[in-house]
Amino acid sequence: MLAFLAYRQVEMRSMAAVEAAGHTITLSQARLFERVNPEGSRLTELAESAQLTKQSAAYLVDELIAAGYLRRSRDPEDGRAKLITITDRGYEVIAVARRSEAEVEEEWSNHLGDESFDTLRRLLIELREITDPFR
Asked: How do residues 99-126 score in pLDDT, each as one tens digit?
């Protein structure tokens, strides 16, 4: 629960910053969007990593495409498959979210002290090895 509370604050602050920058993206869309690989992802991969049904993922992807954050194109490795990639507008959203995340990290570092914050960050990265099967 403690990890969730910290995550939720970062998520809420990032979403507020994205909205303040003029981007209209919902929390459900953002949770799927953050799983798109910079080289592109197939819909089935996105659905699995976001823990959604393929139908729900397709709906969110369609919304993100309509808003100009993602695009769907033919997968160069398999002409039958489609690849979902991030547009320039999508990278604008990512940049806003990353700046917000950096602000939160700076606040946490100021609160905990640099050494404690660095330890926390290192331990979370180590935990990712066993907690994120989609990394």
From this structure: 999 999 999 999 999 999 999 999 999 9
pLDDT in tens, 16-25: 999 999 999 9
CB atoms within 10 A of CB 81: 12
- 100-109 residues labelled b (16+ CB within 10 A) or e (exposed): beeebeeebb
Residue 33 to residue 35: CA distance in whole angstroms: 5
Q: Taking CA 80 as the corner, what is the angle to CA 85 and CA 41, rounded to the nearest 5 degrees?
A: 25
Give the separation between CA 96 and CA 15, rounded to whole angstroms.
Answer: 9
30, 15 contact by CB (below 8 A): yes
